[in-house]
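Lecture notes, continued. The same structure-token format from the folding unit now serves as the input rather than the output. Read the line below as a description of shape only.
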């Protein structure tokens, strides 16, 4: 294979420029280097092959003719052909018909063959080099070549929720090449990601970051302000009061629920636990009496009972909060500790959170009825009857048991008075309501029992009557109207599980 000096110089310059550009990318931007290298080794050979085919197609090629002896097929020198004598190899006369034959040359083009092999080998060699780079330099080429600041400031913000940079940071932390300032900067980038993604608090594990955080906190390389900001990112900057119910003036009873904290903080490496306690609840700036009904790690609820005046009110909850080392709480139930018995805190502070409460006049209509066909829950009224039975009760009475639920297909709001008609007698059972919107839902229970006088043993079916009643759902502040059509589910099977049954416990 021959080539000119000019071709050699052009190829040498092109290869040099390519190697220089890739080397610069490898040192400054490993991700872009990997993308460019992958593109070159995969697309480059195809482009070169196409270019070679076009180049060969634009050139003319000539095949020479070789004289041979017609008898022995041996090559003949030009002199023997000119003189047309005898074959110098076999002595046959070359003057006879077909004494001399001319064969077209079929010589192999070794240069093109080698070029084809090079095209085939190029992607294999390139992939091998990339794999070697991955093996030597970690999961992403070039991360070990970056300085701490480049790794933290340039790479981490774009890959904060991926493992590669965190593994490199773990390795540098183990070798002692990260200072406390580097660790603080790293955690600040993580906090920025957490508070931007979920400002109300973190609600999932930190899979890739956990080992780094545990190691950094254990080594004492995290300053207190940065550690506290990480805890705040987990728990949320402030507690929140769940949406308060809609109420009417007069004597009322309602629950106040406060949410604060994240269960994932104890699995994420900060090493601190949030403790908090509700100190006071105020209405319009005045303390009110609240009976605590529950308290767990992330929630508190209390019940208020008293008189309310119509108008706009504000509920304010004051909390005492602290971050304490998890080790000081080992073996203790933090929910059972009053704040006077809390271990020594790394940080202690007070929080205040407020929520509006609207109280309506006694006669004001809060929830309307609609018969818009788009809100129609269907022929069953959106209710599914799971069981309807008669059982024996005390004192010779019977128990009517109804178990019902709402269909999964229901959307919007429904609120019913529920009654059962057995043998012509209508028996009120209670109420059911539900509200569903955009993945959120709230519903009442669906289990009812009623004691009645004897039920005719021959009765095997009953009707379930659903009468719309907005008063049961008006506490839900997001509900403005419910379906207003009455529904009667006729001929529901009535199971006879009482002693007056005929031995067949289920209706037919």
């Amino acid at each position: 294979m021959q080539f000119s000096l000019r071709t050699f110089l052009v190829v040498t310059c092109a290869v040099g420029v390519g190697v220089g550009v890739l080397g610069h990318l490898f040192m400054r931007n490993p991700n872009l280097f990997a993308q460019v290298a992958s593109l070159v080794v995969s697309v480059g050979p195809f482009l070169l092959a196409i270019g070679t085919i076009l180049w060969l197609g634009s050139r003319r090629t000539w095949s020479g003719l070789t004289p041979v002896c017609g008898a022995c097929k041996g090559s003949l020198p030009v002199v023997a052909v000119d003189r047309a004598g005898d074959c110098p190899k076999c002595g046959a006369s070359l003057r006879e018909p077909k004494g001399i034959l001319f064969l077209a040359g079929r010589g192999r083009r070794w240069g093109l063959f080698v070029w084809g092999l090079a095209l085939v080998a190029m992607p294999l060699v390139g992939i091998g080099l990339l794999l070697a780079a991955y093996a030597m330099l970690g999961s992403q080429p070039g991360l070990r070549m970056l300085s701490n600041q480049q790794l933290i400031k340039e790479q981490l913000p774009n890959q904060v929720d991926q493992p590669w940079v965190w593994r490199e940071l773990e390795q540098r932390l183990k070798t002692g090449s990260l200072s406390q300032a580097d660790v603080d900067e790293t955690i600040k980038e993580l906090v920025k990601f957490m508070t931007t993604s979920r400002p109300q608090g973190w609600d999932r594990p930190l899979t890739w970051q956990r080992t780094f955080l545990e190691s950094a906190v254990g080594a004492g390389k995290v300053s207190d302000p940065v550690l506290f900001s990480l805890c705040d990112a987990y728990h949320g900057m402030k507690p929140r009061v769940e949406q308060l119910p809609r109420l009417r003036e007069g004597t009322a009873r309602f629950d106040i629920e406060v949410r604060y904290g994240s269960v994932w903080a104890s699995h994420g490496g900060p090493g601190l636990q949030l403790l908090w306690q509700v100190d006071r609840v105020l209405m319009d700036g005045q303390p009110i009496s609240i009976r605590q009904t529950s308290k767990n790690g992330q929630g508190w609820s209390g019940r208020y009972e008293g008189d309310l005046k119509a108008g706009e009110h504000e509920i304010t909850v004051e909390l005492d909060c602290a971050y304490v080392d998890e080790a000081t709480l080992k073996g203790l139930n933090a929910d059972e500790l009053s704040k006077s018995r809390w271990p020594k805190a790394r940080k202690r502070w007070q929080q205040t959170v407020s929520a509006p409460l609207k109280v309506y006049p006694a006669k004001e209509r809060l929830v309307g009825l609609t018969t818009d066909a788009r809100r129609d829950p269907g022929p069953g009224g959106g209710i599914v009857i799971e069981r309807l039975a008669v059982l024996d009760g005390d004192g010779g009475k019977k128990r009517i048991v109804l178990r019902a639920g709402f269909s999964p297909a229901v959307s919007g709001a429904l609120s019913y008075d529920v009654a059962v008609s057995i043998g012509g007698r209508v028996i009120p059972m209670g109420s059911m309501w539900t509200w569903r919107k955009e993945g959120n839902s709230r519903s009442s229970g669906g289990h009812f029992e009623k004691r009645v006088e004897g039920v005719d043993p021959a009765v095997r079916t009953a009707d379930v009557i659903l009468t719309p009643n907005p008063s049961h759902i008006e506490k839900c502040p997001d509900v403005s109207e419910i379906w207003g059509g009455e529904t009667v589910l006729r001929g529901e099977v009535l199971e006879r599980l009482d002693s007056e049954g005929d031995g067949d416990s289920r209706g037919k």
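Point for the exam: The chain is about 30% helix and 30% strand.
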